């Protein structure tokens, strides 16, 4: 039996939180030491996590009606994530490649602690290809992950978000956009000294609106940076420009230009519509590139737009993790059938625009909702989160995509009381503390790794 994992929270509390149902034989004794001194096994037993339920998925009439050989059956059981796992195996074999993951979600993802923990653990295992997607959240007047900063001397930004009924400005792959009428704009990127350690970069790609002023390098390093400006949109409303740096850096200063490319002519400021969406930071190394895309308050319907999904496809993910469902559960009349239809509509767009991308649905964890009893505010468990979780699992089976049940992994029914008692939930009892989110990120990593190791064992992959 493997050593018990050292957790950030008290072991007895954690055992009360996590529902463990199945045991299995260890595949390897090797271990991975994490940056925070937590120790996780390289190869995980089922008892360490919650497995992804592949065997119950119907992959279509062809698989249902044809008698498969034993080897073919193993592959079909893992069909939802087969190509992704094969890509991971290429990294383990030492191939110079990048495997891209996008985790799309709501406020649980925007904060960056949940997805950030999964990102770090996967990169420790398979290699670090860079920080990936970063968005100008603080400039849009909302919370930003704590491992980077995007700043500007401009203060009069107008912010658009996917959740707005009438968007104040267009949005990009990150579900937000910022716009300014200023005739001169700067954007400075910097990695946080401690939280952003390990994410130096030598290439930055900016995503901007078609009519926005291009940005050029500024500051001391401007002459050592190669700038490649694009003239045409690569997706609806999006232009990408690339900055290639001669060495790894932690900061990049950019300044807008009104100069017509290839000439000394200055174009009038009124001819531009200055709209910026975010950046993709890479380091030129093989490994995992993990894009975290989350917007506070987001629901499936907020991302269900074909133009948006085409923008998201620019990130070229091998795996798209969809972590939504919490906000839908606070509606007055939560309807499982309606919710299922919303998930299915979004998945159909993803399959159309990203046909080679593996899809992994995750369920929301249980939380509280605020009610008033005798004019006094109190909190009760949000029963709709359990209904939402069951709906997501059912849709995953019907759609033939992978699903990880975070609701069950965090303890299932009535688990929110235990997480709150352990100090892992925020004051609103909907969101979690940084430590709580990091625990969830660790659980997701374990689920992926445990299933990946099963895939290797079942298919005789070295």
TrEMBL record:
InterPro entries: Iah1-like, SGNH_hydro, SGNH_hydro_sf. Residues 286-438 form the SGNH hydrolase-type esterase domain. It holds the Pfam family Lipase_GDSL_2. It comes from the Bacteria. This is Lysophospholipase L1-like esterase. It comes from Parabacteroides faecis.
């Amino acid at each position: 039996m493997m050593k018990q994992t050292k957790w950030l929270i008290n072991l007895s509390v954690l055992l009360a939180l996590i529902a463990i149902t199945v045991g299995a034989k260890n595949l390897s004794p090797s271990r991975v030491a994490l940056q925070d001194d937590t120790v996780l096994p390289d190869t995980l037993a089922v008892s360490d996590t919650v497995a992804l339920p592949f065997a119950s998925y119907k992959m279509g009439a062809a698989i249902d009606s044809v008698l498969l050989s034993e080897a073919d059956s193993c592959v079909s059981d893992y069909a939802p994530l087969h190509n992704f796992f094969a890509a991971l195996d290429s990294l383990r074999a030492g191939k110079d490649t990048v495997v891209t993951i996008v985790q799309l979600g709501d406020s649980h993802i925007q904060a960056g602690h949940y997805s950030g923990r999964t990102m770090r653990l996967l990169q420790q295992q398979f290699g670090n290809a860079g920080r990936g997607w970063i968005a100008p959240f603080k400039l849009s007047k909302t919370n930003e992950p704590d491992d980077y900063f995007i700043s500007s001397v401009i203060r009069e930004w107008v912010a658009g978000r996917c959740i707005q009924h009438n968007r104040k400005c267009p949005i990009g792959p990150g579900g937000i956009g910022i716009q300014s009428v200023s005739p001169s704009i700067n954007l400075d990127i910097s990695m946080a000294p401690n939280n952003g350690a390990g994410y130096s970069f030598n290439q930055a790609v900016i995503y901007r609106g078609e009519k926005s002023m291009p940005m050029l390098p500024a500051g001391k390093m401007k002459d050592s940076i190669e700038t490649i400006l694009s003239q045409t949109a690569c997706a609806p409303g999006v232009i990408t420009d690339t900055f290639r740096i001669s060495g790894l850096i932690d900061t990049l200063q950019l300044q807008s230009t009104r100069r017509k490319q290839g000439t000394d002519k200055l174009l009038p400021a009124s001819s531009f519509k200055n709209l910026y969406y975010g950046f993709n930071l890479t380091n030129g190394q093989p490994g995992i590139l993990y894009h975290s895309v989350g917007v506070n308050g987001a629901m499936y319907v907020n991302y269900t737009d074909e133009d948006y999904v085409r923008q998201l496809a620019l990130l070229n993910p091998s795996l798209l993790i969809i972590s939504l469902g919490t906000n839908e559960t606070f509606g007055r009349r939560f309807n499982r059938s309606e919710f299922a239809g919303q998930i299915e509509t979004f998945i159909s767009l993803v399959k159309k625009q990203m046909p080679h991308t593996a899809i992994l649905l995750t369920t929301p964890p249980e939380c509280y909702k605020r009610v008033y009893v005798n004019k006094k505010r109190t909190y009760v468990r949000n029963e709709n989160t359990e209904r939402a979780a069951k709906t997501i699992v059912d849709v995953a089976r019907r759609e033939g995509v992978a699903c990880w049940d975070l609701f069950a992994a965090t303890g299932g029914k009535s688990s929110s009381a235990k997480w709150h008692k352990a100090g892992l939930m925020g004051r609103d009892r909907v969101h979690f503390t940084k430590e709580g989110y990091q625990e969830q990120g660790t659980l997701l990593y374990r689920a992926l790794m445990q299933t990946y190791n099963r895939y290797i064992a079942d298919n005789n992959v070295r």
